[in-house]
Amino acid sequence: MSQDDGASSFQQPPKPPSRKETRDNPAPTLAWIEDRIAEIYSVRQIHDQQVNIAQYTLSTYMDTYTAIHEFCTFTKHGRTETGELNGESLYRRLESAIKAYCQEAAAVISALQDGESIDRPSVPIAVLSAYSRQRNTFSQICKKVEHMFRFLDRHWIKREVDENKHEVYELRRLHDLIWVQEVLGVTWPYQGTPEPHTTTLVMESMKQLQQHGENDTGSTGSEDDLVQSVLDTFRSLGLEFVDGRLSVPKVEPVVETPIEKAIKRAKSKLKPVSEEETARDGSQD
After folding, report:
1. 212-225 pLDDT, tens per residue?
2. How far is CA 21 from the centre of its chain?
């Protein structure tokens, strides 16, 4: 199926439960949002190179944003007639979907070697080209999700992060950490390590293509551009590729003064001028 066929066959989702229905019983609203999460992180996009969330109409986008807003609002204290439902319920479902998506992306990239030697120039080129495409698609999804789930990010995730809750990260950070672990093979402890070790196919391909460029004066500019493109993605993830290995640059911890902390807390409590306007702006990206 072509990309055009994939786009034309995309069906806009049904309407979510109403505000009253969400207030009375948030479970169906959570189920509706879960369906959107499954749609947004559908592994089919990995093969078709299309982004489902980018095909949402403004109405669908706003429906999803509103459903998330109302679910978080009516489960703020976790006390509902159907049990403990709150921002964490939504966060963990997002986390699981992101992980499954990244695992499939890693499998697709790894399959490109297809038993051939990594020493053949065509293999690392194919691997790194696929990595670059998959990273671009994933970044598009991440950007859209950041906007759509902004209420969750601001009103539940941020509070958990500020309180140093274990295994909770702001949405962009969550996407990046899972990508690094599942696609690049770097196990990144929560406090970080100076030099996480990895021997994934992407790393081997980088080394081979760099060596090929250094030893072969006939290497093409497109190969150099490809290597640079992948290096740029590493840097955007807070990683450096040195001597064939990924490393985490050492950064001195920032110590906030009590006044700075107070200002930060005050800013976090400021309500946006219009949540609906913010969501609409995000849908245009």
Report:
1. 766 665 556 688 88
2. 30
Cβ partners under 8 Å of residue 271, min gap 6: none
Tokens of 197: 């070790």
Domain that holds residue 46: 3-272+278-282
Q: Could you tell me which residues come within 8 angstroms of residue 266 by beta carbon, excluding any fewer than 6 positions away?
A: none
Domain count, the chain: 1
Give residue-wise pLDDT tens across range 65-78: 999 999 998 887 65
Q: To 10 degrees, the CA torsion angle through 193, 157, 273, 16?
A: 130
Tokens for 186?
A: 């770097």
Distance between CA 140 and CA 180 in Å, rounded? 16
pTM: 0.78
What is the rounded distance in angstroms from the CA atom of residue 247 to the CA atom of residue 11? 43
